[in-house]
Specification:
Number of domains: 2
Radius of gyration: 16 Å
CATH class of the largest domain: Alpha Beta
Order of helices and strands: EHHHEHEHEHEHEH
Strand order of the largest sheet: 1-2
Number of strands: 6
Amino acid sequence: MDDTLLHLWIDWNGAVKKEILESVDGLKLDPSEHIVYMAEKASNNPERKKIVDNIFWEYESVCLENSEYSIYAQSAGILRELRKRGHKVAIASNNTVRLIQGVVEKAGFEVDAIRGRDSVKKAKPSPEMIFSIMDELGFGREDVIFVGDSFTDVGAGKAAEVRTIIIKPGEIDLRKVLGI
């Protein structure tokens, strides 16, 4: 979601990383590591995972309350066009479900399923979110096109063995790629 559909004004590599590092007593984490991998290592048991998910939500909730995010117009338009054409649309994000639901509601998007870091045991690049959505919607691998913007999305799509398209909003015309 973050940097595929919208941009959140969150200092992931500063404030969020620092808070995660401070929250995991006795666990050695590399502060230079990417936030996704650091958060995954810090979430090595259910109690710690809940702490990390709450840290994410702490920052995301401020963004949501203060509308500190920018929705990419092209991505939003594509979501609407896909729905208009009868396609199912789902969001699988390493953000929290509460953030995703809040943005979806505020923006007036129609989605059929949502998965976030706090609704699964492992965040992307694990394929768990994709598999969970496929199960809910009754889709096989051949029915899915997974669109993302990062290495975690590539990893999740590859692990789920679904068609995966990586975009950079504003730089690639996804309408042409999808043929819409």
